[in-house]
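User: I'm curious what two different proteins look like when written out as structure tokens. Can you demonstrate?

Assistant: Sure. I'll show them one after the other, since each token string lines up with its own sequence. Here's the first protein:
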Amino acid sequence: MNGALTAAAALSGAVFTGAACWALGILLLNQLEISLPGLERVPLAFVTGAAALHALIFGLMATHVGYRVVLIAVLAAVIPGGVISEYRARATVRNQIRRDRADLSPALFPRIAGGLIFAAYAVLYFVNAWAPEVSPDGSGYHLELVARYLRAHGFEAATTNMYAGLSEGVEMLFVPAFAIGKHSSAALVHFWFAAALALLIFAYGVRLGKERVGAVAALLVFLCPVVGIDGSSAYVDVATTAVAFAVFYWLEIWDQRRDPALLIPIGLLGGYCYAAKYTAAVMLLYAIVFIGWRARSLKPVLIVTACAAVMIVPWMVKDWVYLHDPIAPFGSSIFRNPNMFPILEEEWIRSMRDYGIQNLWTLPVEVTVRGVATQGLLGPVFWLAPLSLLAFRRREGRRVLIPGLLFLAIFPTNVGTRFLIPCLPFFSLGIAMFLDSVPVLLVLVVAFHAVASWPTVVNRWAPPMAWRIRSFPLRAALRKVPEERYERLTGPGFELARLIDQYVPPGEPVLTLSGIPSAYTSREVVVSFQSAYGMILKDIIETAWNPLWQPTRILDFRFEKHAVQQVRLLQTAKLDYPQDWGIVEVQFLDQGVERRRDPGWRVRAFPDPWNADEALDDSLLTRWRSWEPPWPGMYLEIEFGHEERIDEVKMRASQYALDSQVELQSWESGRWVRLGGAPKLTEVDSPDGLRRGVGRELSARGMHYLLVQDFDDEAKPIQADPESWGFAVVARGPGGTIYRMIP
């Protein structure tokens, strides 16, 4: 496909998907006989229809009929229906719709100036969204999973990517767009949500009779640098914010009209909040409490809850079917499964809580004007955010600030700047309400924000590494600049992804120790820190070169010769993260002669029963691990199936398990009894030749290709002598090397 056709396809996919969202919303509103002023009707119909389209696409993917032609047919069927329905509705309700108009002084706040500012930034964001998609998560897991589902024509068990467990409500809208126009098309769909969010905020101000408050708040949000880059990428944060604000908006309309039909879009969008992003479910809780408080009745609460369940339950069922955890990737210590280890979940949660920032009191400065550690900038104007709290003095101020404070309350669970975006509409309205008594201040604040947030100005005051829009890539958007050249500006990862497609056979997965733009390769990319499988493979590589992982410790249990049928190694210590318990190998001896394992032996373990055999596989590269901090009661258990006479048990471990306290027990007379006393600890040298077995062990686990990037810790040891690891060089690219396991 040439450049012009690629650009046209990207735009077409986004336009058709956005039009389908609007059309479904119109069909729903007209079916419920909900009339709205035109200013509100378009964005509310779009966001409400997005929830409906997401459910429709989910159904197609769940039934494995997600073919490109089917997706296009669905869009083509929906759009005319919405257009016809809206034409008929307008003919009958035109006289019923009235727009509230605020008293606006054109001398202080000309509408044309606000419109021009909005238009300038809208064009900037649109062009960036239309350009090749190069955002970290957009080119990574968001679109990787979309592309994977499309190749399979439906959902599949993506057990090697923990992000597949997250609800993917916005990604379902990316599916038809991606099927038509690939990566940029999905980013453009997200841009529609950014525009809809701004229109909703403005319309809310009009509904209050405070047009300039709505206009200022809309611009404060829309011009925000992190909203610009997020909303023009294949992310989900701005879309989630639009959905959450739409719930708030529908609640305000319901509170005025008390029309039972309004409970349906409230419930659907409340459930869609969960489907878009787990944390946004607080908006559903807000809706339930608000309706219960205002209605003083259980019936409307039940209606909202039932509608929300239509959006929530399918995602929980999907996770249960494919990942055995209805709230995956969380809950791994409750819904134990072989795909997600508790320690992986714990590490992820801990990293989200601080992003490596030593002093969290610096967060206000970090999220507003630094934006390196927290990956995004709000802009200095949001130093005014505390002023919004002064709007609590008025009823409308309290109404907008309470949901904003709810979202702020969950911000500590992930301190990335993006996770403040759901707060912005509410606090921006609060700021504008407080400053509304001095209109000149509104003008100055917007003017300052508009200038300070323009990319060429941001480049002057923001650190170079802060995530933001940097340019106006019109030639790249029109594909007059080749996609490969534009992508190369962001790093070598895109070339490595295409290198994988070129040199790795179809159907073969690739292990990588660091993330790459995996949405740009059709091969399954297993990132070492995104799944239990990846962590096990990384553990094998780590053992070959990291002294802390190497099996240099032996716990030796000696006792009088004993006839045993079943023994276990019991953990008795309670240790804190990041420690876990690991057993490299267990040996059973009689007078120094090892009892070799026979097929009748059964190995069990808790809390990780799926990999228990790793402790008796005669390999010093593999181990059984608890994959969570040790606590009394963990065990590795061996049932021999017959009596074995032994007088010694050796447990081989690594320095990583230095603090583990282990007791040997035997099953006798229906209970576990201690066998022998405390073990003797012996330190030994690292075995020779560990590296030679790495390729063999990875191959045995179905991994035949490895991508090592030049910045990986393992890069130099492997590059120095790949054959000693059991690897052969397949291809070298800028910034990395692809290896194949030697048979």
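Here's a second, unrelated protein for contrast:
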Amino acid sequence: MKRFLSLFVVFAMAISFLSSPINLFAAEPVYKLGTTQKPDHIILTWQDDPYTTQTISWRTDISTNKSIVQYVKETDSLSFPKNSLSQEGNVEKFVSDLGEMNLHTVTIKNLEPGTKYVYRVGDGTNWSNTYSFKTEPKNITSFKFLVFGDSQSGLPTNPEYGPWEKTVQNAFKANPDSKFFVNVGDLVEWGQYYAHWNNWFKAAEGVVDTIPAMAVEGNHETYNPPDWHTTKPIFFTSQFKLPQNGPQNLKGQTYSFDYGNAHIVMLNSQEEEEKNINGSILEDQKNWLENDLKNTDKTWKIVFFHKTPYYNKATRTNEDIKKAFTPIFDKYHVDIVFNGHDHGISRTYPINNDKFVDNPSKGTIYYVTGRSGNKYYYDLSSKVWDAFFYDPQDQPNYIVVKIDKDKMNIEAVKQDGTLIDSYTIDKLNGTDYPKTILPPKYNETKLVVFGNMLQQPLMPTSPKKINNKWYIPVRAFIQYLGGNVDWNDNGEIRILYGKNEVNISIESDSATKNKTNINLPDKVYLDKNITFISSDDLNKLFDFTYKYDESTNMLMFTK
């Protein structure tokens, strides 16, 4: 009987457990802030010139209210910390979702250019380990830096930064002579969820405390749990002490600095996320960018921002960013623009005024930098503007930029060290390698939608010009986008695209869109049983914009 009762109790408990609405194995882990009196999250940046200053930041618990850096030249480091120099800085309280902490910042000044220093940080009692940094040498024209695409986890409630750790550590191990690195945004998945920052910093130990991390804000830095609403990127700007020379409302988000013979500009592309907080940040940056580029005499002009004007995602465009920034790049001949956001690796032809040109001396190269973290996409593709494309689904990657006087070499490298792409610009000789070979001018006009060229068997015929207006086969266009076109018995044509239903008729210049009457700029046209619709009609019905590129004979549509 006792054995029977025991089995019955076990069975009842099992049934109760299985039927319970609480799944213990699905419970989210509880993350802790993890601060102590000992400094951690030690990171180098520059707020002033790299020749004679070094900014160092770290965090502690809120009981530690003093910020001290002890430092000495490496040549005098045998007795460190005895006979060391010291400098005090600022401490500020920072409130995160996991609790309060103190953030400490010291900018050491009057350093000697081209000199290696050892240092430690603390409060006079609790000290960090000993690290090192090196100031920029005078008149340097040959140097190297690293670029990392999106390092985010891709998992909002799981701060998985193992892939980022392996990428950043492998990159620095392979390139220990790098002077600094840039992360082009989306450092973390949820910018205002501190568990992600804890793991991001932990993964980058040994790198961010040795070479400056000059970061760029991405859209994910503005996101908040649990509903993804956007705010100012407070966690980002509080932890990354960056130059404050940008527009007034974008301090620490937009900035520029010089290193060697390069002028480097960091822009904020988060118009969509910040317009209700900061107003039109693109407009605010245009005048600043113009003045910034106008007043540099450096050999190389390099720009970083997150969202790319020349993208690889299927239909995700950034036309407002392109319109705001690229004319200024053209005017002052920016050599190269590095972007993230799409998690692919691509290198455009040189581009000027949104047209492909045959030499980098005539235009700007736009380079999408791939991914350094866990997240990748399934809908990337090479676009008509790409001279090179690679989809890094197999493993993360990083970029190595080497400047040697009038030459710049850019290499995309897999996490395991495998070379993906190598491209060199030679300003002195006006050449590049591999040499730019532009696409041909096609005999038949090609239809391009979101950078993708539509070809047979999808395309029954090419776009046509009728009465000086471009017409395209509507079925091929809509079906490519995942919509549908049906011909009804009453002669009407029904177009289903996204949430929209449009009904039109041959030889008619009117339509209904979601049961609302619309007057169209042009009549619908039928030729050899193929229905054509004008480019202006597509704009009226679905907000598509277009341009015709005469050099390639391509009719390009985007949104």
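A detail about the second structure: The radius of gyration is 28 Å.
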